[in-house]
Amino acid sequence: MTIIAHISDTHFDGSERALSRVRRAMTYLRGCNVDVILVTGDLADHGDVKEYNQVKAELVADVPVLLLPGNHDDRAAYREILLDSDGSAPINQLKRAGGLLFALCDSTIPGEDDGLLAPETLDWLKGVLADSEEPVFVGLHHHPIRLNNPLLDGIRLRNPDDLAAVLRGSSTARAVFCGHAHAAAAGTFAGLPLIAAPGIFSTTRLPWTTTDQLAWANTFDRDDVPGVVFHVVENGELTSHFRSIAE
């Protein structure tokens, strides 16, 4: 059995508030018996070097911590601090952790909030899935399905059909994990489980839970507690458990 702790959207911005919420989450997770921690994007808020130095210092544990970029991240600074490399190409990584294989895809469009899996990323993922003889768990930042929140759905993945075609053509893809929504959600995509992690930095309000007309200025609840999804993989089966992280 392998247990994945899935969080997202830490948005390090240099503030004590962001730092304290991440520390709260990571302290909790370090005390849990998990095999790997997955953080699905928007690690930094402005994508600058100082923020990535905080990412490097704080998103650490005795188990592997897997990271991928989101729309607030900057590829150059991300590569410089977190990967000790340079370049502006999509940051796609194949990682083994907890006895599982993770294909971490870069769905970002530099300078834009919505997402796109570039042709080279789709080709890379197709090759990973074809070459693997074991289950592969796919991670990206942007959600490829509608989450029934007009604001968020306006900045989701632009080319979900291209991703679906790659996944449907594979016998090894097992699930898709994403972030971006700042709200826990579960669905299906290309016949696979699709799980969006809650946000660490804030939570998005759902349209049917309020009489307010939601806009970007008022949709984020900064007082809601951060959350985590625990994915349990056992004998090829996936079960996901959603928990809040109390102080």
Automatic annotation (TrEMBL):
Q: Pfam families under this entry?
A: Metallophos
Hydrolase found in the keyword field: yes
User: Which stretches make up the Calcineurin-like phosphoesterase domain?
Assistant: 4-183
Q: Which InterPro entries match?
A: Calcineurin-like_PHP, CNP_phosphodiesterase-III, Metallo-depent_PP-like
Q: What keywords are annotated for this sequence in UniProt?
A: Hydrolase, Iron, Metal-binding
MF terms (GO), sorted A to Z: hydrolase activity; metal ion binding
Membrane-spanning parts:
none
- Does the record bear NAD in its keywords? no
* Record family assignment: Belongs to the cyclic nucleotide phosphodiesterase class-III family.
Protein name per the record: Metallophosphoesterase
Origin organism is Nonomuraea cypriaca
